[in-house]
Design brief:
It is a single chain. This protein is an alpha+beta fold and about 300 residues long. Helix content is about 25%, strand content about 35%. The protein has two domains: about 110 residues, 3-Layer(aba) Sandwich (Rossmann fold), CATH 3.40.50.150; about 140 residues, Hnrnp arginine n-methyltransferase1 (Distorted Sandwich). The structure holds S-adenosylmethionine. S-adenosylmethionine binds next to helix 4 and strand 2. It comes from Dactylosporangium matsuzakiense. Pfam families: Methyltransf_25. InterPro entries: Arg_MeTrfase, Methyltransf_25, SAM-dependent_MTases_sf.
């Protein structure tokens, strides 16, 4: 596994000249080398796509998900808005699949297919549903599709997203120098800099085929399991790429965790309650989360 935090390349407009949700070509390899992500999508797409299915890939990037879908026999249309990424995807897809995949240089927010679709692939995801436009793009797609084609909606992959949060004590000191800045963590790695004050709690879960959330918010009380100075919270975002009902199962992709500092740390002992509150819109930048993040010890706990 790579030991760097995959997706740290999502630098904001000020640094790259690109809007935050556009991933320029130089950062696409971070996505391609994220083996957990790639394997989960390869498995889910192999499971969901049957030969002849009409598949739409919104925010196709280098086209890798379209490639997986074409390999499974899907008739694929891919949409990418960033010109260099689009050009690279077009030649990579041509090399891998001949003329099987149609790729269009377009904005996924306005694109309307000219015929019904069976499956929509959309990986415009960031931990916390921050920064990227997954919810906005799928919401706009659903409205346009229902208006122009009527129902039923296609299946979506991912099918659902589940988000959780937990209070933590994070060591933000590096060689004696303290910088409380957001940290990304690989879920499968040991995290010696993080003390989990309490286990995670789910604050949001939804299906992409159901009404989509307009906010990502939490107001949760945790019971501390160990002494800690809670100076951060950890966000956990798990995407259920495909769900099966008989037998019950899913192909999941848990994104890299995001640990964000709080402005006013609180000290807790085992058994103490600690309240975590935040509220932001899907697609907001990380500072919108951190600016509105509040940690407190409920008054009755004193
Ligand atoms: C996180 S990347 C994932 C790329 C690809 N789906 C994959 O899984 O490797 C999201 C992609 O969506 C593209 N994108 C962002 N906003 C878009 C929009 N409005 N229309 C089309 N593509 C968009 C970005 O440029 C980026 O290539």
């Amino acid at each position: 596994m790579p030991d760097y935090p995959v997706r740290m390349g999502h630098l904001s407009t000020e640094y790259t000249g690109f809007p935050a949700d556009v991933i320029p070509l130089q950062y696409q390899a971070l996505l391609l080398t994220d083996e957990r992500r790639m394997q989960a999508f390869a498995d889910a797409i192999a499971q969901a796509v049957q030969p002849g299915m009409r598949v739409l890939d919104l925010g196709a990037g280098t086209g890798v998900l379209s490639y997986f879908a074409a390999r499974a026999g899907g008739v694929v249309t891919a949409i990418e808005c960033e010109p260099r990424v689009f050009a690279t995807a077009r030649s990579a897809l041509r090399a891998a699949t001949g003329d099987t995949v149609r790729i269009l240089h377009a904005d996924a927010r306005d694109y309307l297919p000219d015929e019904p679709i069976d499956l929509v692939l959309c990986e415009m995801l960031h931990v916390g549903l921050l920064r990227e436009r997954q919810v906005e793009v799928i919401g706009a797609f659903k409205r346009r599709y229902l208006h122009h084609m009527g129902g039923p909606l296609p299946r979506f992959l991912p099918e659902a997203t589940v988000q959780a949060v937990q209070p933590v004590e994070q060591d933000f000191t590096y060689m004696g120098y303290t910088v409380p800045a957001p940290v990304f963590q690989l879920p499968e790695s040991r995290q010696p800099r993080t003390v989990e004050a309490a286990p995670p709690q789910v604050f949001q879960q939804f299906f992409y085929s159901s009404p989509l959330p307009s906010r990502c918010g939490a107001d949760l009380v945790f019971v501390a399991e160990r002494p800690a100075v809670v100076n951060a919270v950890r966000l956990i975002t798990k995407n259920l790429l495909t769900l099966t009902y008989d037998p019950a199962g899913s192909v999941d992709w848990t994104m890299n965790y995001l640990v964000v500092p709080v402005n006013e740390p609180v000290e807790v002992l085992p058994g103490d309650e600690v309240r975590v509150r935040f509220d932001y819109a899907p697609g907001d930048e990380i500072p919108v989360l951190t600016d509105g993040l509040r940690i407190s010890v409920p008054a009755h706990a004193h």
